[in-house]
């Protein structure tokens, strides 16, 4: 946490908020069960997001998990577009956590007070935003069809060339719309 400066963020959050913090701390075995090289393959930003995904910006006691609203918001972000979904379900005293890629349970309480709760989990919580395999690239566009008529070749297809002015205008328009949506 020190390497990513998330420790400073958590310290400030605890001292400047009345909401408290809940942390899901994976066991050593949870990290050992990851595919070798998994953590080293992550970018610095992904490492920060992975740590933040294990932090809920409110104090949740074991009993308050029963009334928690899913999906839970994490310090990595909310569940918009299902990038960082975190859902909890309870059964008796058991708290189960799912991310869409990881299913695990709280296996014990490491520490708890009125502001901070740290619970051990048996797996590293893997958010889809980081660990979901990227979809395959789209299939290439079909070659332009050429219709022959009256001795002259006529091309009625839309250019498949990504550098065509029409394609660039569409990409720019979509990009502007996305930026505008985030600014609202």
UniProtKB/TrEMBL annotation:
What's any one GO cellular component for it?
A: side of membrane
Region (Disordered) residue ranges read 129-160
Summary of the function given for this chain in its UniProt record: May be a cell surface adhesion protein.
| Domain of life where this protein originates | Eukaryota
**Similarity comment: family membership:** Belongs to the fasciclin-like AGP family.
Keywords attached to this entry: Cell membrane, Glycoprotein, GPI-anchor, Lipoprotein, Membrane, Signal
What are the recorded Gene Ontology BP terms? plant-type secondary cell wall biogenesis
- PANTHER family linked to this entry: FASCICLIN-LIKE ARABINOGALACTAN PROTEIN, FASCICLIN-LIKE ARABINOGALACTAN PROTEIN 12
FAS1 domain location:
1-125
Cite the SUPFAM superfamilies for this sequence. FAS1 domain (SSF82153)
Topology in membrane: Lipid-anchor; GPI-anchor
Provide the protein's localization: Cell membrane
Where do Pro residues bias regions lie? 133-143
Please verify whether the record's keywords include Iron-sulfur: no
State the protein's name. Fasciclin domain-containing protein
Organism whose genome encodes this protein? Cephalotus follicularis
Kindly indicate whether the keyword Magnesium belongs to this entry.
no
